[in-house]
Amino acid sequence: MQTVKMVVTGPFSAGKTEFIRSVSEIDVVSTERKISSASEKSVKESTTVAMDFGRITVDDDLVLYLFGTPGQRRFDFMWEILSEGMLGFIVMVDSTRPETFREARSILETFHAYAPTPYVVSANKQDMKEAWDIEDMRHVLRLDSKVKLIPCVATDRDSVKAILLELLYSILSEMENGEK
Amino acid sequence: MALRGNLRDFTITQLLNLINLANKTGTLVVEGPSETAEVAFRNGKLAYAQMAHEDGSLAFVLFKAKKLSSGQFKSIQQRAAHISDKELGLLLINAGYLSQEDILTNLQQHFADIIQRLFTWVEGFFHFDNDALPPDDRISVRLDLENLIIEGSRQMREWEQLQDEIPSLDMALKFMDRPGTNLRNVNLSVEEWRVVSYINPRNTIRQIANATKMNDMEIRRIVYGLLQAGLVVTTRLEGAVVPASTMRVFPSEDKEEQKSLVNRLINRIRSL
Lengths: 180, 272
Hints:
Distance between the termini of chain B: 71 Å
Number of strands of chain A: 7
Oligomer: heterodimer
Shape of chain A: globular
Largest sheet of chain A: 7 strands, mixed
Largest sheet of chain B: 5 strands, antiparallel
Number of strands of chain B: 7
CATH superfamily of chain A: P-loop containing nucleotide triphosphate hydrolases
Strand order of the largest sheet of chain B: 1-5-2-3-4
Strand order of the largest sheet of chain A: 2-3-4-1-5-6-7
Protein backbone atom coordinates (compact mmCIF):
# COMPACT_ATOMS: atom_id res chain seq x y z
CA MET A 1 0.00 0.00 0.00
CA GLN A 2 1.36 3.42 -1.01
CA THR A 3 0.62 6.46 1.11
CA VAL A 4 1.01 10.18 0.49
CA LYS A 5 0.15 13.06 2.75
CA MET A 6 -0.99 16.65 2.70
CA VAL A 7 -0.94 19.07 5.61
CA VAL A 8 -3.69 21.51 6.54
CA THR A 9 -2.35 24.34 8.63
CA GLY A 10 -3.39 27.82 9.75
CA PRO A 11 -4.03 29.88 12.86
CA PHE A 12 -6.18 28.89 15.80
CA SER A 13 -9.84 28.37 14.84
CA ALA A 14 -9.28 28.79 11.10
CA GLY A 15 -11.34 25.68 10.31
CA LYS A 16 -8.67 23.01 9.78
CA THR A 17 -10.49 20.25 11.65
CA GLU A 18 -13.75 20.99 9.81
CA PHE A 19 -11.91 20.99 6.49
CA ILE A 20 -10.53 17.49 7.04
CA ARG A 21 -13.81 16.27 8.49
CA SER A 22 -15.65 17.29 5.31
CA VAL A 23 -13.74 14.90 3.04
CA SER A 24 -12.27 12.23 5.27
CA GLU A 25 -13.79 8.78 4.85
CA ILE A 26 -13.00 7.95 8.48
CA ASP A 27 -14.08 9.92 11.50
CA VAL A 28 -11.29 12.40 11.92
CA VAL A 29 -8.91 11.17 14.57
CA SER A 30 -8.83 14.39 16.46
CA THR A 31 -6.81 15.20 19.54
CA GLU A 32 -9.04 18.01 20.71
CA ARG A 33 -9.04 19.27 24.27
CA LYS A 34 -11.24 21.68 26.16
CA ILE A 35 -9.82 25.19 26.00
CA SER A 36 -8.65 26.66 29.28
CA SER A 37 -7.59 30.13 28.09
CA ALA A 38 -10.40 32.65 28.50
CA SER A 39 -9.50 34.61 25.36
CA GLU A 40 -9.38 31.50 23.19
CA LYS A 41 -12.51 30.11 24.83
CA SER A 42 -14.45 33.08 23.53
CA VAL A 43 -13.71 31.79 20.00
CA LYS A 44 -14.41 28.08 20.46
CA GLU A 45 -14.78 25.47 23.17
CA SER A 46 -12.13 22.91 22.17
CA THR A 47 -8.96 22.90 20.09
CA THR A 48 -6.55 20.49 18.39
CA VAL A 49 -3.48 19.97 20.54
CA ALA A 50 -1.41 17.46 18.54
CA MET A 51 -2.95 16.86 15.12
CA ASP A 52 -6.04 15.88 13.20
CA PHE A 53 -5.85 12.90 10.98
CA GLY A 54 -8.12 12.10 8.02
CA ARG A 55 -7.94 9.56 5.23
CA ILE A 56 -9.07 9.28 1.61
CA THR A 57 -8.56 5.89 -0.05
CA VAL A 58 -7.72 6.43 -3.71
CA ASP A 59 -7.64 2.82 -4.85
CA ASP A 60 -6.41 -0.57 -3.66
CA ASP A 61 -2.87 0.63 -3.76
CA LEU A 62 -2.94 4.30 -2.73
CA VAL A 63 -4.13 6.25 0.31
CA LEU A 64 -4.04 10.01 0.90
CA TYR A 65 -3.63 11.13 4.49
CA LEU A 66 -4.64 14.61 5.60
CA PHE A 67 -2.93 15.99 8.68
CA GLY A 68 -4.25 19.06 10.45
CA THR A 69 -1.80 20.99 12.60
CA PRO A 70 -2.55 22.54 15.96
CA GLY A 71 -3.14 26.25 15.48
CA GLN A 72 -1.64 27.76 18.58
CA ARG A 73 2.00 28.80 18.48
CA ARG A 74 2.73 26.94 21.70
CA PHE A 75 2.28 23.67 19.80
CA ASP A 76 4.49 24.66 16.88
CA PHE A 77 7.06 22.02 17.80
CA MET A 78 4.64 19.63 16.00
CA TRP A 79 4.74 21.55 12.75
CA GLU A 80 8.12 20.44 11.50
CA ILE A 81 7.33 16.82 12.30
CA LEU A 82 4.03 17.01 10.43
CA SER A 83 5.59 18.74 7.43
CA GLU A 84 8.03 15.88 6.84
CA GLY A 85 7.36 14.23 3.49
CA MET A 86 4.25 16.23 2.63
CA LEU A 87 3.10 16.44 -0.98
CA GLY A 88 1.88 19.98 -0.42
CA PHE A 89 0.07 22.06 2.16
CA ILE A 90 -3.03 24.18 2.61
CA VAL A 91 -3.03 27.31 4.75
CA MET A 92 -6.49 27.91 6.18
CA VAL A 93 -7.36 31.49 7.04
CA ASP A 94 -10.56 32.60 8.77
CA SER A 95 -11.83 35.36 6.45
CA THR A 96 -13.85 36.88 9.28
CA ARG A 97 -10.93 37.31 11.72
CA PRO A 98 -8.43 39.81 10.31
CA GLU A 99 -6.55 39.74 13.60
CA THR A 100 -5.30 36.26 12.58
CA PHE A 101 -4.03 37.26 9.10
CA ARG A 102 -0.57 38.18 10.33
CA GLU A 103 -0.27 34.86 12.12
CA ALA A 104 -1.42 33.06 8.95
CA ARG A 105 1.30 34.78 6.93
CA SER A 106 3.89 33.78 9.48
CA ILE A 107 2.69 30.14 9.50
CA LEU A 108 2.82 30.08 5.70
CA GLU A 109 6.43 31.28 5.75
CA THR A 110 7.39 28.79 8.43
CA PHE A 111 5.92 25.83 6.52
CA HIS A 112 7.43 26.98 3.26
CA ALA A 113 10.79 27.12 4.99
CA TYR A 114 10.36 23.56 6.29
CA ALA A 115 9.60 22.20 2.82
CA PRO A 116 9.36 24.16 -0.43
CA THR A 117 6.41 22.11 -1.65
CA PRO A 118 3.41 23.63 -3.48
CA TYR A 119 0.73 25.22 -1.35
CA VAL A 120 -2.59 27.01 -1.63
CA VAL A 121 -4.23 29.48 0.73
CA SER A 122 -7.82 28.82 1.60
CA ALA A 123 -9.97 31.79 2.64
CA ASN A 124 -12.42 30.02 4.92
CA LYS A 125 -15.88 31.14 6.12
CA GLN A 126 -16.52 33.03 2.91
CA ASP A 127 -20.23 32.32 3.39
CA MET A 128 -20.32 34.68 6.36
CA LYS A 129 -21.39 38.28 6.17
CA GLU A 130 -18.27 39.58 7.91
CA ALA A 131 -15.89 37.71 5.55
CA TRP A 132 -13.21 39.85 3.99
CA ASP A 133 -13.04 40.23 0.26
CA ILE A 134 -10.55 37.84 -1.35
CA GLU A 135 -8.48 40.54 -3.02
CA ASP A 136 -8.28 42.54 0.23
CA MET A 137 -7.07 39.39 1.97
CA ARG A 138 -4.44 38.88 -0.72
CA HIS A 139 -3.03 42.33 0.00
CA VAL A 140 -3.02 41.94 3.76
CA LEU A 141 -1.55 38.44 3.57
CA ARG A 142 1.04 39.83 1.14
CA LEU A 143 0.45 37.01 -1.33
CA ASP A 144 2.07 37.19 -4.72
CA SER A 145 -0.38 37.15 -7.64
CA LYS A 146 0.87 33.66 -8.51
CA VAL A 147 -0.18 32.22 -5.14
CA LYS A 148 -3.59 30.58 -5.25
CA LEU A 149 -5.94 32.18 -2.70
CA ILE A 150 -9.23 30.32 -2.93
CA PRO A 151 -12.56 31.08 -1.25
CA CYS A 152 -13.74 28.23 0.92
CA VAL A 153 -16.42 27.01 3.28
CA ALA A 154 -14.77 24.22 5.26
CA THR A 155 -18.07 22.57 6.16
CA ASP A 156 -19.00 22.23 2.49
CA ARG A 157 -17.54 19.14 0.83
CA ASP A 158 -17.51 20.61 -2.70
CA SER A 159 -15.68 23.65 -1.49
CA VAL A 160 -13.06 21.49 0.23
CA LYS A 161 -12.74 19.32 -2.87
CA ALA A 162 -12.04 22.42 -4.95
CA ILE A 163 -9.19 23.40 -2.62
CA LEU A 164 -7.63 19.93 -2.68
CA LEU A 165 -7.91 19.84 -6.48
CA GLU A 166 -6.23 23.24 -6.83
CA LEU A 167 -3.36 22.02 -4.69
CA LEU A 168 -3.03 18.85 -6.78
CA TYR A 169 -3.07 20.90 -10.01
CA SER A 170 -0.27 23.04 -8.57
CA ILE A 171 1.72 19.91 -7.69
CA LEU A 172 1.22 18.51 -11.19
CA SER A 173 2.11 21.79 -12.83
CA GLU A 174 5.29 22.08 -10.76
CA MET A 175 6.29 18.55 -11.77
CA GLU A 176 5.73 19.39 -15.42
CA ASN A 177 7.64 22.67 -15.15
CA GLY A 178 10.48 20.84 -13.43
CA GLU A 179 10.84 18.58 -16.46
CA LYS A 180 11.23 21.48 -18.89
CA MET B 1 25.83 36.91 47.46
CA ALA B 2 27.39 37.63 44.08
CA LEU B 3 25.06 39.03 41.50
CA ARG B 4 25.29 36.53 38.67
CA GLY B 5 22.84 34.57 36.57
CA ASN B 6 21.12 33.96 33.28
CA LEU B 7 19.28 36.56 31.18
CA ARG B 8 16.40 34.12 30.77
CA ASP B 9 15.74 34.32 34.50
CA PHE B 10 16.71 37.94 35.05
CA THR B 11 16.29 40.40 32.20
CA ILE B 12 18.41 43.45 31.40
CA THR B 13 15.51 45.66 32.53
CA GLN B 14 15.40 43.93 35.91
CA LEU B 15 19.20 44.18 36.27
CA LEU B 16 19.28 47.91 35.50
CA ASN B 17 16.38 48.48 37.88
CA LEU B 18 18.22 46.71 40.64
CA ILE B 19 21.47 48.62 40.01
CA ASN B 20 19.53 51.88 39.95
CA LEU B 21 17.50 51.25 43.11
CA ALA B 22 20.42 49.82 45.07
CA ASN B 23 22.76 52.65 43.97
CA LYS B 24 25.33 50.04 43.01
CA THR B 25 28.91 50.74 42.01
CA GLY B 26 30.73 48.19 39.87
CA THR B 27 30.86 46.61 36.45
CA LEU B 28 28.17 44.46 34.90
CA VAL B 29 29.57 41.92 32.43
CA VAL B 30 27.00 40.44 30.06
CA GLU B 31 27.98 37.56 27.82
CA GLY B 32 25.48 37.38 24.98
CA PRO B 33 25.28 34.75 22.22
CA SER B 34 27.97 36.41 20.10
CA GLU B 35 29.17 39.47 22.00
CA THR B 36 30.23 40.50 25.48
CA ALA B 37 29.44 43.87 27.01
CA GLU B 38 31.00 45.52 30.05
CA VAL B 39 28.97 48.29 31.64
CA ALA B 40 30.24 50.26 34.62
CA PHE B 41 28.03 52.07 37.14
CA ARG B 42 28.84 54.55 39.85
CA ASN B 43 26.25 54.96 42.64
CA GLY B 44 23.50 53.55 40.44
CA LYS B 45 24.29 55.76 37.45
CA LEU B 46 25.76 54.68 34.13
CA ALA B 47 29.45 55.56 34.00
CA TYR B 48 30.92 53.68 31.08
CA ALA B 49 30.07 50.96 28.54
CA GLN B 50 32.13 48.94 26.15
CA MET B 51 31.51 46.03 23.78
CA ALA B 52 34.39 43.58 24.18
CA HIS B 53 35.28 43.28 20.51
CA GLU B 54 34.62 46.84 19.44
CA ASP B 55 36.83 49.88 19.51
CA GLY B 56 35.54 51.95 22.42
CA SER B 57 38.21 54.64 22.26
CA LEU B 58 37.20 58.28 22.32
CA ALA B 59 38.67 58.75 18.84
CA PHE B 60 36.44 56.01 17.43
CA VAL B 61 33.33 57.30 19.25
CA LEU B 62 33.90 60.79 17.80
CA PHE B 63 34.63 59.38 14.35
CA LYS B 64 31.39 57.31 14.47
CA ALA B 65 29.49 60.44 15.50
CA LYS B 66 31.04 62.28 12.51
CA LYS B 67 32.90 64.69 14.80
CA LEU B 68 36.18 63.50 13.32
CA SER B 69 36.79 62.83 9.63
CA SER B 70 38.24 59.49 8.57
CA GLY B 71 41.55 61.26 7.82
CA GLN B 72 41.66 62.78 11.30
CA PHE B 73 40.73 59.45 12.87
CA LYS B 74 43.50 57.65 10.94
CA SER B 75 46.02 60.27 11.85
CA ILE B 76 45.10 60.01 15.58
CA GLN B 77 45.40 56.23 15.37
CA GLN B 78 48.85 56.50 13.74
CA ARG B 79 50.39 59.36 15.65
CA ALA B 80 48.57 59.47 18.93
CA ALA B 81 47.75 55.84 19.63
CA HIS B 82 49.70 55.98 22.92
CA ILE B 83 47.74 58.86 24.47
CA SER B 84 44.77 58.18 26.72
CA ASP B 85 41.17 59.22 26.09
CA LYS B 86 41.44 61.91 28.76
CA GLU B 87 44.58 63.34 27.14
CA LEU B 88 43.02 63.23 23.69
CA GLY B 89 39.90 64.93 25.01
CA LEU B 90 42.00 67.73 26.55
CA LEU B 91 43.97 68.15 23.32
CA LEU B 92 40.77 68.49 21.27
CA ILE B 93 39.28 70.97 23.76
CA ASN B 94 42.48 73.02 23.99
CA ALA B 95 42.76 73.10 20.22
CA GLY B 96 39.25 74.56 20.17
CA TYR B 97 38.15 71.70 17.97
CA LEU B 98 35.47 70.37 20.32
CA SER B 99 33.94 71.50 23.60
CA GLN B 100 33.82 69.43 26.77
CA GLU B 101 30.07 69.21 26.31
CA ASP B 102 30.50 67.82 22.76
CA ILE B 103 32.75 65.08 24.06
CA LEU B 104 30.52 64.14 26.99
CA THR B 105 27.34 64.18 24.88
CA ASN B 106 28.86 61.87 22.28
CA LEU B 107 30.19 59.49 24.91
CA GLN B 108 26.81 59.43 26.66
CA GLN B 109 25.11 58.63 23.36
CA HIS B 110 27.62 55.87 22.62
CA PHE B 111 27.13 54.30 26.07
CA ALA B 112 23.34 54.63 25.82
CA ASP B 113 23.45 52.89 22.40
CA ILE B 114 25.29 49.97 23.96
CA ILE B 115 22.65 49.72 26.71
CA GLN B 116 19.88 49.79 24.10
CA ARG B 117 21.57 46.93 22.26
CA LEU B 118 21.63 44.96 25.50
CA PHE B 119 17.85 45.18 25.74
CA THR B 120 17.57 42.93 22.67
CA TRP B 121 19.60 40.18 24.33
CA VAL B 122 17.38 37.49 25.74
CA GLU B 123 20.02 34.77 26.02
CA GLY B 124 23.28 34.97 27.91
CA PHE B 125 24.97 35.13 31.28
CA PHE B 126 25.81 38.06 33.49
CA HIS B 127 27.80 38.85 36.58
CA PHE B 128 28.30 42.04 38.51
CA ASP B 129 31.79 42.83 39.85
CA ASN B 130 31.28 45.05 42.86
CA ASP B 131 33.42 48.19 42.90
CA ALA B 132 35.17 47.38 39.60
CA LEU B 133 35.33 50.58 37.54
CA PRO B 134 36.78 51.43 34.13
CA PRO B 135 40.50 52.32 33.92
CA ASP B 136 41.36 55.87 35.07
CA ASP B 137 42.46 56.97 31.59
CA ARG B 138 38.95 56.48 30.24
CA ILE B 139 36.37 59.25 30.41
CA SER B 140 33.32 58.26 32.40
CA VAL B 141 29.91 59.96 32.54
CA ARG B 142 27.00 60.10 34.99
CA LEU B 143 23.80 59.10 33.25
CA ASP B 144 20.50 58.40 35.05
CA LEU B 145 19.17 54.93 34.32
CA GLU B 146 15.44 55.70 34.47
CA ASN B 147 15.20 57.12 30.95
CA LEU B 148 17.33 54.32 29.55
CA ILE B 149 15.06 51.74 31.18
CA ILE B 150 11.90 53.36 29.82
CA GLU B 151 13.35 53.69 26.32
CA GLY B 152 14.71 50.14 26.52
CA SER B 153 11.33 48.73 27.53
CA ARG B 154 9.72 50.55 24.61
CA GLN B 155 12.32 49.09 22.27
CA MET B 156 11.79 45.65 23.75
CA ARG B 157 8.11 45.77 22.86
CA GLU B 158 8.99 46.89 19.35
CA TRP B 159 11.64 44.20 19.18
CA GLU B 160 9.13 41.49 20.16
CA GLN B 161 6.72 42.69 17.50
CA LEU B 162 9.46 42.79 14.86
CA GLN B 163 10.54 39.29 15.81
CA ASP B 164 6.98 38.08 15.35
CA GLU B 165 6.87 39.68 11.92
CA ILE B 166 10.35 38.60 10.82
CA PRO B 167 11.12 35.49 12.85
CA SER B 168 14.32 34.66 10.98
CA LEU B 169 17.04 36.74 9.35
CA ASP B 170 18.10 33.74 7.30
CA MET B 171 15.31 34.29 4.79
CA ALA B 172 15.91 36.18 1.57
CA LEU B 173 13.82 39.01 0.11
CA LYS B 174 12.51 39.59 -3.35
CA PHE B 175 10.59 42.42 -4.92
CA MET B 176 6.85 41.91 -5.01
CA ASP B 177 5.48 41.08 -8.40
CA ARG B 178 3.36 44.22 -8.79
CA PRO B 179 3.34 45.63 -12.28
CA GLY B 180 3.02 49.39 -12.29
CA THR B 181 4.88 49.96 -9.02
CA ASN B 182 7.99 52.00 -9.65
CA LEU B 183 10.47 52.23 -6.78
CA ARG B 184 11.65 55.58 -8.09
CA ASN B 185 8.28 57.04 -7.09
CA VAL B 186 8.53 55.74 -3.53
CA ASN B 187 10.07 57.99 -0.89
CA LEU B 188 12.74 55.92 0.78
CA SER B 189 15.36 57.05 3.28
CA VAL B 190 19.06 56.64 2.55
CA GLU B 191 19.17 53.63 4.88
CA GLU B 192 16.20 52.04 3.10
CA TRP B 193 17.81 52.58 -0.29
CA ARG B 194 20.97 50.91 0.96
CA VAL B 195 18.93 47.85 1.98
CA VAL B 196 16.91 47.91 -1.26
CA SER B 197 20.12 47.84 -3.29
CA TYR B 198 21.00 44.45 -1.78
CA ILE B 199 17.56 42.84 -2.17
CA ASN B 200 17.96 39.69 -4.13
CA PRO B 201 16.79 36.09 -3.52
CA ARG B 202 20.48 35.16 -3.22
CA ASN B 203 21.08 37.40 -0.16
CA THR B 204 19.73 36.62 3.29
CA ILE B 205 18.45 39.48 5.45
CA ARG B 206 21.39 38.79 7.76
CA GLN B 207 23.86 39.23 4.87
CA ILE B 208 22.18 42.50 3.93
CA ALA B 209 22.51 43.64 7.56
CA ASN B 210 26.21 42.79 7.54
CA ALA B 211 26.80 44.55 4.23
CA THR B 212 24.98 47.68 5.37
CA LYS B 213 26.47 47.50 8.90
CA MET B 214 23.06 47.43 10.57
CA ASN B 215 22.20 45.60 13.76
CA ASP B 216 19.30 43.12 14.03
CA MET B 217 16.89 45.80 15.21
CA GLU B 218 17.75 48.27 12.45
CA ILE B 219 17.52 45.76 9.62
CA ARG B 220 14.27 44.30 11.00
CA ARG B 221 12.76 47.78 11.24
CA ILE B 222 13.58 48.58 7.62
CA VAL B 223 12.54 45.19 6.26
CA TYR B 224 9.29 45.44 8.23
CA GLY B 225 8.55 48.79 6.58
CA LEU B 226 9.29 47.43 3.11
CA LEU B 227 7.11 44.37 3.78
CA GLN B 228 4.26 46.49 5.09
CA ALA B 229 4.48 48.76 2.06
CA GLY B 230 4.08 45.67 -0.11
CA LEU B 231 7.35 46.37 -1.92
CA VAL B 232 9.06 43.11 -0.99
CA VAL B 233 8.17 39.62 0.19
CA THR B 234 10.26 37.11 2.07
CA THR B 235 11.42 34.12 0.08
CA ARG B 236 13.57 31.04 0.54
CA LEU B 237 17.23 31.70 -0.16
CA GLU B 238 17.99 30.88 -3.78
CA GLY B 239 20.32 27.90 -4.04
CA ALA B 240 19.86 27.04 -0.36
CA VAL B 241 20.24 23.40 0.42
CA VAL B 242 16.96 22.09 1.75
CA PRO B 243 17.58 19.67 4.60
CA ALA B 244 16.85 16.22 3.28
CA SER B 245 13.57 14.96 4.64
CA THR B 246 13.76 11.56 6.21
CA MET B 247 10.35 10.78 4.72
CA ARG B 248 9.88 10.57 0.98
CA VAL B 249 7.15 12.69 -0.58
CA PHE B 250 6.38 10.12 -3.27
CA PRO B 251 6.59 6.37 -2.84
CA SER B 252 8.44 6.11 -6.18
CA GLU B 253 11.41 8.00 -7.61
CA ASP B 254 10.10 7.57 -11.15
CA LYS B 255 8.74 10.89 -12.52
CA GLU B 256 6.07 9.23 -14.69
CA GLU B 257 4.84 7.17 -11.76
CA GLN B 258 4.71 10.29 -9.64
CA LYS B 259 2.60 12.10 -12.23
CA SER B 260 0.34 9.10 -12.53
CA LEU B 261 -0.09 9.09 -8.75
CA VAL B 262 -1.09 12.76 -8.71
CA ASN B 263 -3.56 12.14 -11.55
CA ARG B 264 -5.07 9.25 -9.58
CA LEU B 265 -5.46 11.56 -6.61
CA ILE B 266 -7.13 14.19 -8.80
CA ASN B 267 -9.59 11.66 -10.20
CA ARG B 268 -10.39 10.37 -6.73
CA ILE B 269 -11.01 13.80 -5.25
CA ARG B 270 -13.25 14.70 -8.20
CA SER B 271 -15.31 11.61 -7.58
CA LEU B 272 -15.90 12.32 -3.89
